[in-house]
Specification:
two-stranded parallel ribbon; two-stranded antiparallel ribbon; 4 strands
Length: 374
């Protein structure tokens, strides 16, 4: 599960850090995980009574097939480190530049926090509902996300920076989302998580010399968990057609743009990882957008025109404004604050122009589920 933005946030160009601080201690790693900005993963809570009322009977056959897949648990043996894992990681880490080390640590912390966010949300839902369909689904997804978070945290421990997940659960701020926002945002975060991981995996499959850490070998089966989680929310949304038409399509457009813009700015703010993999950050992002757009046609009646030159210029401008905002924050003082205010207004205006661009519209397929074929 990847970070999803708050529907209430308008500071669309806020960067992840007020000050560029090195991740060099457990306390700093914990501080990084607790951050709540647009570019960092959030913890969520929702309306449990509304979740309890979900009726999946219109898609009973597809739902039961999905739950049987969860029950089969084809990744039960996957998230286990081999003896060679730690040794390979140790040897490769010794060759990294300080900049790559910092970006990889940022990636690990963000990923642990994101996966653990899903674990907490799904676990809280299953504890607070009696609906057997939703309860079973949330139990399975919480199981998966707990494995993911624990596995990534083991790699953080190689650096002596493992997170105390129990403390993180108690200390990180929570954001309330209505169930429909949970559906839109979580569906997208799971599907874009799949697209990100599978694109990286395929690149490193073609260029194994660029695989600078063994964790990337686990991405193929891992990202299929993300894909299946997204399928679950696709089925839930398709059982509630009102969520996918009328004024709600405006929320779908918002979440599509917010998730894509957040990913673009973050990837370009932290480009070293992509460079080390032999990937161009911009080309990588648009490939991920392409895959996510194709998948999301299973449930969303609109999609963004990410190939439109104006759209691409808009995302590039958001990144430029983000970079300038970071400089203004570091400058501080009255002038720095005035610059921040002006840049924030420009960022909001840029986001609004992107939001108002024409979108592609399409009919929803009769068969909801799709296969992870990328």
């Amino acid at each position: 599960m990847t970070a999803a933005p708050s529907a209430q946030q308008t500071d669309t160009i806020e960067t992840a850090d007020t000050v560029d601080r090195a991740i060099d201690s457990p306390d700093e790693a914990a501080r990084k995980a607790r951050e709540s900005t647009l570019l960092t993963p959030r913890f969520y809570t929702t309306d449990f009574k509304a979740m309890d009322r979900i009726d999946v009977s219109p898609l009973r056959a597809e739902w039961d097939t999905l739950l049987a897949e969860y029950e089969g648990d084809n990744n039960h043996d996957h998230f286990q480190r081999t003896p060679a894992f730690a040794e390979e990681a140790r040897q490769q880490m010794a060759q990294w530049s300080p900049e790559l080390r910092q970006e990889f640590l940022d990636f690990l912390i963000s990923s642990v926090t994101s996966e653990f966010s899903g674990c907490i949300l799904y676990n809280e839902i299953q504890k607070n509902v009696t609906n057997p369909d939703i309860k079973a689904l949330m139990r399975f997804m919480a199981r998966d996300e707990a494995r993911h978070a624990g596995f990534i945290n083991q790699s953080l421990k190689d650096f002596g920076l493992g997170l105390d997940l129990g403390d993180l659960k108690r200390s990180k701020a929570y954001t309330y989302f209505k169930p429909k926002y949970i559906f839109y945002a979580t569906y997208l975060s799971e599907k874009i998580g799949y697209a990100r991981y599978i694109t990286i995996y395929r690149q490193l499959e073609r260029h194994p010399g660029k695989r600078f850490h063994p964790i990337f070998k686990w991405f193929e089966r891992w990202c299929n968990d993300e894909f299946r989680h997204g399928e679950s929310f696709a089925l839930i949304m398709r059982t509630q057609p009102h969520l996918l038409r009328g004024a709600n399509t405006l929320w779908i457009r918002f979440f599509l743009l917010a998730v894509y813009a957040t990913m673009y700015v973050r990837d370009h703010t932290r480009p070293m990882l992509k460079d080390a993999m032999g990937l161009d950050a911009t080309a990588y992002d648009y490939e991920v957008f392409r895959i996510t757009t194709e998948i999301s046609k299973q449930v969303f009646p609109v999609s963004l025109d990410t190939d439109n030159p104006s759209f691409r210029r808009g995302l590039a401008r958001l990144f430029d404004l983000s970079t300038r905002l970071e400089s203004a924050k570091k400058r501080g003082g009255v002038v720095g604050r005035l610059q921040q205010a002006g840049l924030a207004v420009q960022g909001l205006a840029t986001f609004a122009r992107l939001y108002l661009m024409p979108v592609h519209r399409h009919a929803l397929p009769q068969q909801v589920r799709v296969a992870p074929a990328w």
